[in-house]
Amino acid sequence: MADVDELPSMQWGLDTVFSANAKLYIIDILEMRESIQVPGVYFYKTHPVSQVDVLGTVVCKWEREDFYCYGVDDSTGVINCLCWKDEKWRHQGERATCRSSAVASGGFNIEDELRRLMETQRKSSVLEIGDLLRVRGAVKTSRGQREIKASCFYKVDDPLMAVQISRMLEMPQLYRKWYDKPFQVPGDELGAKDASGSTNVQMLLSRSVLTLKEFLSEKEMARFRPYDVEFLLHPLVQNAVAHQESDQPGPSFPSQIRNVLKETLGLLQEEGKIFRKVRTQDEVYNVTEQDKDLHTVIKNILREDTKRDKYAEKGCHILHLLSSIRQHYSQNISREALHVALTFLECNSDIISTTEAHYTIL
């Protein structure tokens, strides 16, 4: 693809790709062009990228006093990943290994369990050639070579290749839905016509989703009905209508509001930001990050199930949690919504992930 003029850096935050750890193929990370405005920011087509998420096999390894450098191969290319050693592993790793074997003979001992957890975390940060590594971090160019400076990395146990297959299926969808679609600034897109002559509403929906997210977060709403948030879309739809140039009569304003709201709520459900606990005519949506009852159920399940030998070491898999929550809380909870709730609880230090898909209580 030929280089295109960069959008002003002040507008990059409007692109959802810029705010995320982009799951790109390594070949694309290696070939991205660096921004002429801000060093350390790169462009995949029209999307600014600074943080990436990579999953691949370790094909080479260098160790220094402060970090490991792993060469990671995802079958499209190889990139070096600088993974800094945690201070506590460098100075306490051996002692933690020795003490972790001294498990109390009877009853639950929290110190021993914490040592076991720390040892599991330490082992997940030391990889060998052939291991599967997941890395999140900033893209950098050092000595003319593209590399990733990891902010988070760990070994992935994937004997049945379930994680790799899931990733292989997910990546093409991300490219089709986000990365390969051109980024346009809200407002410029609203008046554009597609090949069929109809107004492109993609950016209207993007702004609508962002508006609802900000409102729900600011008000800390645990649940709402569509008519509670409908008024937020009025100025957005009015602005879109003002940019339309058509001699043909379109849907009425109330109909447009309802259609945009329906699409927006659908997108928020796909992201897991909201869900419907009970599907009734009284259309009530629960806000995942504010649903204290859901958070309590998750913590109770982890607290009870991690007492069992089967889940004591690695914790509970997300699919096990999903099944349990559907039995004890809501049959309509999605995996995306559960992942949002787990991330929220982990950020609040209520739970911790021991692998990519296993969680335990703190």
Largest sheet: 5 strands, mixed, barrel
Helical content class: 40-55%
Unreliable segments of 5+ consecutive residues = 93-105, 189-200
Estimate the global geometry from the Cα principal axes: flat
Strand content: 15-25%
Layout of SSEs?
Elements: H1 26-31, E1 33-34, E2 42-44, E3 47-49, E4 51-63, E5 67-73, E6 78-84, H2 87-100, H3 110-124, E7 132-142, E8 145-156, H4 162-179, H5 202-219, E9 223-224, H6 226-229, H7 234-243, H8 253-271, E10 274-275, E11 285-287, H9 292-305, H10 309-312, E12 316-317, H11 318-328, H12 335-347, E13 351-353, E14 358-361
Parallel strand pairs: 6-8
Antiparallel strand pairs: 1-2, 2-3, 4-5, 4-7, 5-6, 7-8, 9-11, 10-11, 12-14, 13-14
